[in-house]
């Protein structure tokens, strides 16, 4: 639980860093100013009940989904419609760098799906969580297939591989390049706006997730008891304050602005995510027999969770052979080992195990 909290805090800092950099360039101010405004605003939102968080996430989601749907429609028109667009092909773009390139791409893409487990954290504050959360989890798979894979298909069919480079700014994004193919004006600015909305949405979600996670751990005896305190609206007051302290710390880092901050924050996340996913899968394998009498069922047991563990093991092997990713495993091994030792020293830890 604390490793997951640690990872979400790092992601939170990375997201507000990215959003503040874009907003700062728009208004000609230092990045720490829009970062501070965003932190204060979302602090107020998260001190309210889950309804306030859900309301903002609803509108953020509407914007993001609307943009992706429009992108897919535009891409389909460019590929299959009357537009005179020179398209590439899957064969032309399939594994241009061979197996090593596929392995490197797999490492980058795997961690992009981190965060889909956040939907379950809201279960305690949602109505009929056994039905609503299960429905949301199942819907994620279909949305990934349509939105993620659909977007990649559009990019692959419209842009030759040689035209796709590492994107340091929105203007270099493959999404922006597709909009340029469609001759849409201000494509880079539009994509910057979408990126800001996505980052602020994720930042809001991380504040919610970190505070509720600490609150739940306090109720289970794995965090100091005062984090169980809630306001009249049901918001875990001190847990939100803890998250906000670290959010303000990220604003302080914006003011200090050390070089390589964003790269460091993102690199530290990958290894933590692997450990967390392994714990989730092994927990499911252990708990599944006791859930047989409930409506929480999933097909393919036990082959699917074991296949997931094999897949995670392959990602670890790829990271061991990738010099740029190997350091993540070392750092996470130290952090996870330290947290394990601390947990064993806590009162009644052996009884819980």
Question: If you had to describe this structure to a student in words, what would you say it looks like?
Answer:
The protein is mainly alpha-helical and 353 residues long. It has a single domain (2-259), classed as Amino acid/polyamine transporter I (Up-down Bundle), CATH 1.20.1740.10. Helix content is 72%, strand content 0%. Helix 3 runs parallel beside helix 6 and helix 3 runs antiparallel to helix 8 (187-219). The chain is globular and about 65 Å long. The two termini are 14 Å apart.
Fraction in helix: over 70%
Largest sheet: none
Poorly predicted segments: none
Straight-line N-to-C gap: 14 Å
**What is the H/E string?**
HHHHHHHHHHHHH
Radius of gyration: 22 Å
**Shape category:** globular
What is the total number of structural domains?
A: 1
Q: What's the CATH first level?
A: Mainly Alpha
**CATH fold field value:** Amino acid/polyamine transporter I
Task: Report mean pLDDT, rounded to a whole number.
Answer: 81
| Number of helices, where a helix is a run of at least 4 consecutive DSSP H or I residues | 13
Q: Work out the oligomeric state of the chains in this entry.
A: single chain
Name of the CATH architecture = Up-down Bundle
SS-based structural class? mainly alpha
What would CATH call the homologous superfamily? Amino acid/polyamine transporter I
The fraction of residues in strands falls at under 5%
How many DSSP E strands?
Answer: 0
């Amino acid at each position: 639980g604390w490793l997951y909290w640690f990872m979400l805090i790092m992601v939170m800092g990375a997201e507000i860093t990215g959003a503040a950099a874009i907003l700062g360039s728009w208004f000609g101010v230092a990045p720490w100013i829009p970062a501070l405004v965003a932190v204060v605003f979302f602090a107020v939102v998260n001190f309210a009940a889950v309804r306030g968080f859900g309301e903002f996430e609803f509108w953020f989601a509407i914007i993001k989904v609307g943009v992706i749907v429009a992108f897919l429609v535009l891409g389909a028109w460019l590929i299959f419609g009357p537009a005179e667009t020179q398209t590439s092909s899957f064969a032309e773009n399939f594994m241009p760098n061979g197996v090593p390139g596929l392995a490197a791409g797999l490492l980058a893409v795997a961690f992009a799906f981190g965060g889909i487990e956040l939907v379950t954290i809201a279960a305690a504050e949602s109505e009929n969580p056994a039905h609503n959360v299960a429905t949301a989890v199942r819907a994620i798979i279909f949305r990934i297939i349509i939105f993620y894979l659909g977007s990649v298909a559009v990019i692959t069919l419209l842009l030759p591989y040689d035209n796709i480079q590492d994107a340091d700014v929105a203007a270099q994004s493959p999404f922006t390049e597709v909009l340029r193919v469609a001759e849409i004006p201000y494509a880079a600015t539009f994509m910057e706006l979408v990126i800001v909305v996505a980052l602020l949405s994720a930042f809001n979600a991380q504040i919610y997730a970190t505070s509720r996670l600490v609150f739940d751990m306090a109720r289970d005896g794995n965090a100091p008891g005062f984090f169980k305190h809630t306001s009249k609206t049901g918001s875990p007051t001190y847990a939100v304050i803890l998250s906000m302290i670290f959010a303000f710390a990220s604003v302080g880092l914006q003011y200090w602005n050390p070089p390589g901050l964003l790269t460091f924050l993102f690199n530290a996340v990958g290894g933590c995510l692997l450990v967390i996913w392994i714990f989730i899968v092994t927990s499911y394998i252990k708990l599944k027999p006791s859930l047989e009498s409930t409506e929480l069922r999933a097909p393919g047991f036990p082959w699917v969770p074991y296949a997931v563990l094999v897949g995670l093991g392959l990602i670890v092997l790829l990271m061991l052979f990738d010099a740029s990713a190997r350091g993540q495993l070392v750092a996470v091994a130290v952090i996870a080992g330290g947290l394990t030792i601390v947990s064993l020293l806590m009162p009644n830890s052996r009884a819980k195990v």
